[in-house]
Task: inverse folding
């Protein structure tokens, strides 16, 4: 048997939604997959060269952005997002065999999973206490320990199938049956994915000054070039109260003139702006680009200005 040459790290242990996302990457099944306990650890392995890429969750359709991921990728050595993956989220309530629903006093799971199943628990077991876990799979596997502090866990269906010692007490307990989590595959800077016509660019833009109109200046750089945003979130830098950066997903690819011009404008306003990558959208939805924001329009405008400058070269 040949040794895997590609190394991926992901939010583990085995059986997480993150591993499900990773297995959608071509070749990931044959690659070496390294589970870690949190997004920061996954990204650090990539930065240190101990993994070629990391798969981590960044956004959920119910809860929004994943703060741990947003913060981990916004700081430290620069990395690049090279792919995104969407995974439908389905939750089960599992426990050790022989456990009854009425026996459960404490349930453990990841914070996002807990937020997405609260309505079910309010209706079926309102008195249960919650114990946070690093992942849904970690909460389920911990049930097998003799010193487990919880009697049940909320996790993905794959976990119960992989651990016959666990029993499913309830299926499809998510409050939103259409919930989806978005994951990103992150690597060291290198070859950027080519534009597909349906792409996304992710940025980190620190707020340079806390004053009226500061955010408007940032947004104007994008809006005036016809660059639409699919996500924008503010996160504290941790330096002092009131100091924030913006995590932004914009429609388009850096190879497009309108995106290049927008990034140049952002850098003028906020020189610490961080480019996190341009990559294909998982839903393959192309943006609507007005003619005056097309590459051809930008090229024609540059040639027009160059012609004017050329006319006055001898003066």
Result:
């Amino acid at each position: 048997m040949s040794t895997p040459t590609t190394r991926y790290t992901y939010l583990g242990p085995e059986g997480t939604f993150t591993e499900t996302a990773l297995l959608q990457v071509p070749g990931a099944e044959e690659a070496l997959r390294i589970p870690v306990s949190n997004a920061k650890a996954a990204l650090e392995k990539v930065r240190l060269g101990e993994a070629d890429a990391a798969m981590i969750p960044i956004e959920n359709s119910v809860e929004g952005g994943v703060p741990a991921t947003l913060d981990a990728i916004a700081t430290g050595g620069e990395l690049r997002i090279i792919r995104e993956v969407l995974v439908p989220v389905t939750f089960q309530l599992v426990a050790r065999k022989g456990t009854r629903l009425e026996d459960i006093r404490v349930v453990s799971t990841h914070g996002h999973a807990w937020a997405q199943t609260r309505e079910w628990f309010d209706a079926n077991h309102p008195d249960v206490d919650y114990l946070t876990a690093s992942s849904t799979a970690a909460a389920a596997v911990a049930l097998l320990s003799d010193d487990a502090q919880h009697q049940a866990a909320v996790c993905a269906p794959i976990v119960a199938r992989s651990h016959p010692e666990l029993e499913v007490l309830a299926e499809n307990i998510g409050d939103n049956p259409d919930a989806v989590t978005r994951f990103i595959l992150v690597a060291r800077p290198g070859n950027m994915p080519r534009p597909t016509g349906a792409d996304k660019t992710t940025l980190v833009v620190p707020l340079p000054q806390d004053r009226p109109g500061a955010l408007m200046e940032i947004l104007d750089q994008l809006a005036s070039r016809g660059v639409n945003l699919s996500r924008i979130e503010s996160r504290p830098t941790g330096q002092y109260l009131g100091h924030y950066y913006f995590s932004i997903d914009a429609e388009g690819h850096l190879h497009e003139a309108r995106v290049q011009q927008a990034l140049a404008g952002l850098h003028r306003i906020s020189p610490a702006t961080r480019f996190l990558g341009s990559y294909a959208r998982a839903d393959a939805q192309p943006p609507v680009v007005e003619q005056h924001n097309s590459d051809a329009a930008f090229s024609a405008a540059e040639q027009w200005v160059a012609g004017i400058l050329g006319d006055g070269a001898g003066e």
User: Anything to note?
Assistant: The mean pLDDT is 92.
